[in-house]
Amino acid sequence: MKRLKISKQQGFTLVEIAIVLVIIGLLLGGILKGQELINSAKVRSLADQNSSVQAAYYGFIDRYRAVPGDMDKDEACKVIGANTLVGCSGVTGTAGGNGNGRLDKGNWQEASAVWAHLSAANFIVGEYPGTATNASSYDATQAPLNAFQQPILLGSTSSYLDAGGSTVPERLGLILGRSTPVNILSQLDIKIDNGKPMSGVLRATKQTGGDYGAISDRSTGCVDTTNKIWDVAKETQDCNSIYLY
Predict the structure, then answer these.
(1) CA 243 – CA 172 distance, rounded (Å)
(2) Largest Cα–Cα distance in the chain?
(3) How many CB atoms lie within 10 A of CB 212?
(4) Predicted TM-score of the model (pTM)
């Protein structure tokens, strides 16, 4: 009588398991490193954009002896060029301000005209009509976008956090835009300032009720106001900040 041969099922050896674990470790390490590089690129993009806008703003003042956005429409048409600005040569719209030498708090006409003047004078890339009148009309056609495809805004405001108390002075600054993850803003703050969202030149914006509406607001969970730190642990993805000039 013939005996049936029963094959023994062999498991993985320790060497094989070790090789698999090494491969998994390398893959995870590569993914984490890749994400770290992406985050670093986003931080660098925000920092570079801020520096570029600041240089353009002061460069415009130096050349024209006037504030971009605040410059009177007729004056802007005369010195920048009638073929590039809305409001010139009979084109409908008003790309200009009241000419009082400053960007007024919460003034959509001036905040929108900033980009029209800077682009027309070739200080920034792009073409912007400068015709936005509120937050809903202020979009990619009216302003440059940040690294997360949200519009940025240059204007005067007191809608930012301050460690000194509830009375916040009005300051000129660049609102860096929404949809920025809290960890990115924390890294950016460490890179260009003191790492604290309620002091220094880089501040968190108010949660709601900002001078520029939804453009200047942020979601909850971005800042631990008790400890005055970016609340990185909550991993909030819709944060906002302003760089004070």
Answers:
(1) 9
(2) 111
(3) 21
(4) 0.83
CA torsion sign for 156, 157, 158, 161 is negative
pLDDT at 170: 96
The answer to whether the beta carbons of residues 85 and 128 sit under 8 Å apart is: no
- Nearest Cα neighbor of 155 from 173, 137, 142, 168 is 173
Residues written for the chain: 245
Answer positive or negative: Cα dihedral of 180, 183, 186, 188.
Answer: negative
pLDDT averages per 10-residue partition of the chain, 245 residues: 55 73 72 69 94 97 95 86 64 74 95 93 91 93 96 97 87 97 97 96 95 95 96 97 97
Taking the chain, what is the end-to-end CA distance rounded to the nearest angstrom? 96
Dist. CA 143–CA 132, nearest whole Å: 9
Looking from the CA of 173 toward its CB, the CA atoms found within 13 Å total 24
